[in-house]
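Q: Can I see a sequence and its folded structure?
A: Here is a first one.
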Amino acid sequence: MEEGKKRMAVLVGCNYPNTKYELHGCINDVIAMREVLIKQFGFDPSRIELLTDAPAGSSLVVPTGANIKAALNRMVDGAEAGDVMFFHYSGHGTRIPSKKRGRSFRQDEAIVPTDFNLITDLDFRQLVNRLPKGTSFTILSDSCHSGGLIDKEKEQIGPYSIVQNNGKECFYSLKTIPFQSVLQHLSSLTSINTSDIGTHLLEFFGVDASIRFQLPLHELESFESLKPDEGILLSGCQANETSADMNPVEGGGKAYGAFSDAVQRVLKENSGALSNREVVMMARKVLEEKGFDQHPCLYCSDDNAEAKFLWQPTDDQSC
């Protein structure tokens, strides 16, 4: 297979400034990742789309649900065999009640854009199912409950034993917005008295709402994974865990997402090509050594578990 014909990325950092859900390190995470992609993985800066909720006056696109999905759709629509695609999300995640039969007490995973127009595991499944054969699409989600963010993707690395936080000198926030808080916020936008989150999302966002809330139940259940597919998910934690947003209180250090920082450290300290499995296992070790109570996971096909992370090019390959 021809590797790295085009290298494209969508990087999304959501800090939710001036809200009760404010985080501090998410924009730093994706800006730092942009540099890693360019310097170490041969990405052309013109093929990297950056979406953040930086203060007014920035020329960047705001990461609303519609804008994030539009950026991902452009990337997938422009892909062909041999292309490498990468989506890095740093921000809040949440869990929503599952609509699938037999899953009355189960929950599905979603990320929370700045406008609360949720992007769900089924949206990512739909993207993966659209990938041209011979491409690679890697998602790195530094958010709470990010395990399983590609619906029906095979778990390669799951939960291990929990390591307690060691109380380092940092303030930290959990990168999660509970379902009831999401529901309360959406209810304030629609003024509709219902606990059905899909009703609120469809009322306020219309066709821009997640496909999970637009399709009837029988069509949702017909969404199957293509086996094997080209989707690869590196999640900051297991589906029932939270991810940390760190804000150092000493030395003037920058705020950062614990998982994003761990992955970047692993990549910078290992100039040679690493497999997706190696990246996740090494990031786990970094987090364990720092005392974090989260366990990154890997979801992909057996072949992609051993494939090089982002098909890292050799020195004689151009982007």
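Q: Show me another, different protein.
A: A second, unrelated one:
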Amino acid sequence: MSSKALFLLAFLSFSAVSLRHALADNEQDPGLVMNFYKDTCPQAEDIIKEQVKLLYKRHKNTAFSWLRNIFHDCAVQSCDASLLLDSTRRTLSEKETDRSFGLRNFRYLDTIKEAVERECPGVVSCADILVLSARDGIVSLGGPHIPLKTGRRDGRKSRADVVEQYLPDHNESISVVLERFSAMGVDTPGLVALLGAHSVGRTHCVKLVHRLYPEVDPALNPDHVEHMLYKCPDAIPDPKAVQYVRNDRGTPMVLDNNYYRNILDNKGLLIVDHQLATDKRTKPYVKKMAKSQAYFFKEFAKAITKLSENNPLTGTKGEIRKQCNVANKHH
């Protein structure tokens, strides 16, 4: 056999082995797909949806928490439920960082996990439960149904030490906020839509008193200032006291485009809300979303999808936690 034929034979058998390995890897790790649990736990998504509905009936604010969770978990390096891990002797929990101020209802995520575990022990990740509870929470708040892929696995470590590098603070410049989201693949209309989540829930006085004391920020609508001062009467609020202002006084429990009308009327509570309505890069989208709820929902759905697919652990990476607040090795 000529050397050329030998080379060709060797090349073909090498290619066949490589292809077999690639196919095996692909079977092991299909990545994120729609309905990932259809064979291993077909009821998973229905159980999560049912639990979200039940919890929402009992505790309306759970839906705000689910929505915040997807942002606070997926925006920090990976959508891997690292947010849910408790502190250990060696590491601080992300839940205890300053950026997570006001996050709550984690115990109810455990309720959802327990319901899923009863049906399919050790199959469904906390990362997928976090993402799907956000999806169903958005619907509870009157937002769009967003088809999201599953197949995430759970991280084993807290990312508390890098939270501030990834999660923008509400006082950062709009340029920093745009840059952080752009790094995750979220474009400008996507960012404007994600901040529309400020249409529901509340802002603690601790986060906005600097706009009221010692002097009132002249950018604020004077009609709104009166209400803000009434709700936040102290320049240094007691962080343990639950003092807050509703993000949207008109429809505080509904995810809608009222937020954009409010910020164009200088009623945004946070600096980032005000900047969103005034910066030339974002203002055109704010105006468009103020006019069209359908446009807001379309961009919001795209941005939530992007966020939910940010660098997930799939295949054999990570683990399926038994309890969402503890990595298995410590369980």
